[in-house]
Amino acid sequence: MPNNNITEFTSIEVLAQAIKTTLDRPTTKKKIVALYAFNSTGKTRLTNMLSEVESDTIKVLCYNAFFEDMFKWDNEKYILSFVPSSWIVKLVIEQGLEKDIIDNFKDIMGSNIEPLFDFKAGEVTFNIVSGVDSGVTNIKISRSEESMLIWSIFHTVVKTAIDALSAEQADRTTSIFNDLKYIIVDDPVSSIDDTKIITMATKLIEAIKLYEKNTINFLITTHHALFYNVLVNSFKRSSEANFKSYSLSRGIQAFKLSEQGDAPFSYHLSVKEIIQNAIASDTIEKYHFNLFRNLLEKTSNFLGYSNWSDCILGEKKQEFIRLLNLYSHSKLSDLESRELSNQNKVLLQETFNAFITNFKWT
Which domains are assigned to the chain? Predict the structure, then answer.
């Protein structure tokens, strides 16, 4: 991967191999790669390919949509269920990690909601703790609170792995991570505010910095500009790490990987250019709706609007909002069919061009 330019890859498989080569390059320092990519660019597929490097032992710890799918929310019983026989659950029990998970969750959320684990049944319920003898039990939680508990479990496992591998092999509390080579994090940010994003990123950075050896390679991908910038600002001048930061975009026939230096990442201009190029070349796909929504959200925040939909004008507003929500709410959208009807392509083109004109982006 040449420095300070754009490298094109013909497939996600070739891109994954290139990133793996970068991570595996011999060095005396720990290797960290931060990758910025918009939703539906291919981050989930990329991290899943890298997480399948080995299957016989735990050589990869990977947080992505597939990890989240190990947990299922029951909207009738208000229970988050999981498979009690999984190796992660066994590790939590053996190492006594339940309190660490709860503490991580409460640190990020900053609330009095407390999860209660039943490892035998494979269930988590949630209570509001408000005093010694008072509180509310078995409450319904938000999507962000669900995501943060799942992330807290993963973060606690990562911290346990780093602590174990920092010790001499004979002194480790567990040997399960002896062959660990990669820690991969794909977009742990989901429907949470900026304060929680910073807390979450900071805790991850602290865990990585605690590891002083060079045997684990770290890959962190995200669509969230703030999360990405916190990572870059923390590691870009570190003397203890070999750190690389990239942005990933998808062209008409190739994936484009651009190495980022110290210059600010031109988020808004990149989104605008990608959508305009897709319209001009008649290559609009579902992920362009996700990109447009990102641009709408940033614009509405900048202008102080209460909702991103306030930036959509015209008689087809409700039709477009419905379509935008449909294409934006799938966790695995980059794995789904990209086919669009001509009617939906025209609707995106008309709405986007009107947005550019009405909000003076030209």
Answer: 6-259 (3.40.50.300), 267-358 (no CATH)
